[in-house]
Fold each of these.
Amino acid sequence: MTEKLTVATTSLAGCFGCHMSFLDIDERILALAEVASFDRSPLTDIKHCGDKVDLGLVEGGLCNAENVHTLREFRKHCRILVAVGACAINGGLPALRNHIPLEECLDESYLNGIGVENPQMPNDIELPLLLNKVHPIHEVVKVDYFLPGCPPSADTIWKFLSDLAAGREPSLPRELIHYD
Amino acid sequence: MKPSIQIDGKPIPFAEGQTIMEAATAAGVYIPHLCHNPEFEPHGSCKLCTVRVNGRNCSACTFPAADGQEVLNDTAELNELRRTITELLFVEGNHLCPSCEKSGNCQLQAAAYFLGMVDAHFPFFYPARELDGSHPDILLDRDRCIFCELCVRASRDVDGKNVFAIGGRGIDSRLIVNSPSGRLADTPVAATDKAAQVCPVGAILVKRRGFEIPIGERIYDRHTIAEESLEREEPIVESRHD
Ligand code: SF4
Ligand code: SF4
Ligand code: FES
């Protein structure tokens, strides 16, 4: 028997919808478990990748310095990297802030927005610095595959994973390509 | 014998004065396009309809059909070129489909699906062009405009109001509005105008219609753009070429 595929996942600036959609493959996850084992993932609660990961799935775009750091580290450990969902591919909904200056966004959220109580700018060493704009991940690392959708459907994710596990070049038919 | 051209090796008859696009549409052959709409004079700006005519690349929507022409349309090379053009259109605007009410009814999105585009490949521009919400019934989101000039043509040729134009050049091009204030509210445009209905993307939207048709049941959720175009776009050539 060939060795199992090692799969890792991570979430950057996203809503976890892509991870939820992944879980929507339902009982097919048992078939997946036959051929794949999980490494780092919010699902396993392993925080850092093992030495060798075959397949890394990234949800979310780059909103802050920590996202960039996490993505770079993730890329280093993954043989194949996949951008999963709109945020990883084009910034997604978080990128809606891109045409508003960052200062105005912060002002609206923490100082002068409607309903803000006890206005103050968050300022803690633990908080990662925000990037001026939200970026998709291909602007920072090499991405091998893209699964579009907000989120991509479970069938899209499944088609991709099952192609790969069977040693086929993954491809998505027209019905499985959706951007919304 | 009727004159004919060959598209991907298939003989396609045409009438004198027809473009390659018109001959193809009449024969049920889809050539991807965005700025073309058979109801208006061709514009030839998006280049999505690029075909190879006797060995040279031409825009099918503006190039006249001529007897014996050999046209390549549905080839891997041309479709890849069209996909690159589509990717460029995506990075030049803010095409964040999940937040756009045109999603599912949008021709840019549908063309991208048709061409198998899964990402936009290039770094994003994230432009910040002025949004105009001043009109009571029409919203203008300039960040989604692909400069097809369909609204320009519709407003000038059908509505007779000359409300829209493209101003500026290159990266500074943007849709401008013909009123002293530059605001849509101060033009005579109405939601029932052709110009308000014709935008292939979500740049000109009639307000309060966004979710009339649920996601999943919209035009391109049900049909590919090829099927939809061939069904809808009857070539109205006679009147134009009389
Ligand atoms: S105009 Fe079309 S491609 Fe652009 S965001 Fe809206 S649905 Fe997507
Ligand atoms: S607003 Fe719409 S119809 Fe007008 S030029 Fe832009 S994309 Fe074309
Ligand atoms: S459709 Fe021919 S150039 Fe746009």
Amino acid sequence: MPKQIHLAAHFPGVNHHTVWTDPSHQPDTQTAFASFEHLARTAERGKLDFLFLAEGLRLREQRGQLVDHDVVGRPDTYTVLAALAGVTSRLGLAGTINATFNEPYELARQFATLDHLSAGRAAWNVVTSSDAFHGANFRRGGYLDHADRYERAREVVEAARALWDAWAADAVVADAATGVYARDRSIGLVRTDGRLVDIEARPTLPRPPQGHPVIIQAGDSDAGRELAAQVADAVFSRHGSLEEGRAFYADVKGRLARYGRSPEDLKILPGASFVLGDTPAEAEERIREIQRQQVRPAVARAFVEQLWNRDLSDYDVDGPLPEIDPLVEAPSITQGRAATFKDPFAVAATWRALAAEKGLSIRELVIEVIGRQSFVGTPEHVADEIDRYVQSDASDGFILVPHLTPHGLDEFVDRVVPLLQERGSFRTEYTGTTLREHLGLPAAGHFGRTLDGVGAADEALPVA
Amino acid sequence: MSESRPFHLAVELSGAGRHPAAWRLPDADAAGLLTAAHWAELVRTAERAGAVFAAFADSVQPPSAATDVVQARLDATGLAALLGPLTARIGLVPVTPVTYAEPFHLAKALATIDIVSGGRVGWQVDVAAPAGSGPGDVQAAQFHGRSAAGAAAQWREAHDVIEVVRRLWDSWEDDAIVLDAATDRYIDRSRVHDVAFTGETFSVAVASITPRSPQGQPIVVARGDSPYALAVAVTGADVIRVAARDVQGAADLVARVRAAVAGSGRPAGSVHVLLDVETLLGADEAAARGRLAELDSLAARAFDPSGLHVVAGVDRAADALADLVELTGVDGIVLQPLAHAGDLALLADEVTPRLRAQGRLVDRPAPGGPDAPRTLRDAFGLDRPISRYTAAR
Ligand SMILES: Cc1cc2nc3c(=O)[nH]c(=O)nc-3n(C[C@H](O)[C@H](O)[C@H](O)COP(=O)(O)O)c2cc1C
């Protein structure tokens, strides 16, 4: 049997990727529950592993103003997933929630609640953006530096896992005849005494159905990769090309042994977009139209402004790139999105060379740079490519990012999934009930300590 | 009884019911108390009973050492969200202790439940146990770097939390999303507003990440039975819940609440006062008594009512509830069933049909007609407010 592909559906949203100029897009498309329900039901119909929600805790700004040219606004991650739990039965429900601006006690309780209500389908993508820009909306305020935010994430995940483990696996007896609801001394007290997470808590929920909800990690730095190797069950990566994907895959999987883990214990899932056509030519034609809609003039200008770190409102996006140099000393003109340019001068030089070689305007250049879609072609071609990437260890599968909300996944499920199923590399039915089972992950407890009988018996429990 | 005012019935749910042995009754589904199916069934029954809302009790109190009571408790916010798409008319009211919570997260979570329920969320504000009490310190220790504050400070903060959450709910005007391809604008940024709130214990700078929800301002529920809580409820709540040991105590408290509301300058009809009543129902009086005896025999201690309670057959229960409304002057009752399973079914099948037949239940149709979605504001006869930022234009 070929290596099995794992597929997830990203609810598309706050980025340039979503084609909101499509006539189907309404003012409430990005928030209406019907949108989430449609994508979830489509993903479940396609037997996908999970639905994925992103999160950003402050509306993005550029040049001190709200970004208004892309999708703006989204609902709260946790409550949407809880609502989806009631209208789906097998699909995993994965949500991005920040580890810096939430208390571990609350995070553990929310994901335990979601795991109970969905009977074992919850996943938490642990992210760490922690700058003062986001902090301005929270009690915690301020920010943590880069090293500390991963330290905090690790301590938070460990605390959450401790909270999930705190009730002994067989704590709940619920025996009406004998009147024992919870076994004596079976609800442990979790104490963490981390530098950044120092709590003492006794959670209100039994061990979640999955033991531990699935942990996803999305950071790309060395510290992020190390955290993934140490604590995550899956990585949401941005390395989607064959070569970059293989390098990333080898790097992250290579870190697992240090933590006593095997390569299958961590799934690598890059984000991927797709454009289908009946013929290669039709797919090419569609992608050109989609790119024009994604990279509208304001989007192109904003993107170049981010690299140049300057107000470029006087430039014609149908004209050439700026001759002036990027501004590197000044504070970033962009807030609320991860900085992606490490060396602006080098990138600007590359872009100028590319633009000169192909005779590209600003907008055409931006289309070249960010308009790329991962998989373009006939359904047969796209299925071939996805399978090839997975079989050659560029990934364990993909988190699919449609360009339309919420119908963008429909044709993938109708036309590509059956081909992957024919090849025997994607499931035709769910074989398990939990997300851990869909992902082929080892049972939780792998990381968790077995606390049954430990500690709790040593002390008097507070009586309400 | 003279011509009676129609009143609201709501329910508050927790564990398997208020009685410590409720989970041991044969129909209690003790093994399923944490499942979606269990709560969907329960709340659909409450919906069938015509309950204006179901409140979901919650707190940051850890489980106790007792082995004979339900120690597991789901997060009420997630539970209310689950039930949004699974119900059609009933309000969904999670209780949230705000003391250790981030107001920004609360605002968007509640707005989102409003979205997934089509405008049926309510928010019951509570605080954690105060400093100086054992539970206060135990609760605070669950949160990094926090220690318990006194009740006065906690309620002052709750007042700020309501204020900032309400501002966040308004921070997107209703028509902020313009989808104007000609000018490349998804939103009109002049219609998304910084809330710029700085209080004693926290500040929130900018707008919510979530656009304005169906109700605009979800219903805010607060308790009015302590002076600190009442002060906050009077200025910030749409629904004020009270509990009392006896009818006279309840009538006095309700009068105090109404006077406080009037004193605050808010119009009388804009605030609804609801009275907590513990209930145990039976097909008739003997059956109700029998159920109580059975429950008491299963518990370590006999049931100790925390206040007004009705243990009665379905006939008398309907009258007893109507009488309580008449005698105390409340706008409605929050039933706290001693045992969810049996009580909610009897309520739906026997009690509310009687009250309805007598015209005693408020049951406002949706403004858009009987089949149109009805928001919780609609159910209470409260208009949908425009955003304060729209009003300030
Ligand atoms: C019931 C109970 C559960 C605990 N669960 C965890 C846990 O899941 N993770 C963890 O890191 N520590 C856990 N602890 C450990 C405490 O946080 C603390 O480090 C420990 O009790 C130190 O004492 P020891 O050295 O005797 O183990 C738990 C302790 C008790 C008593």
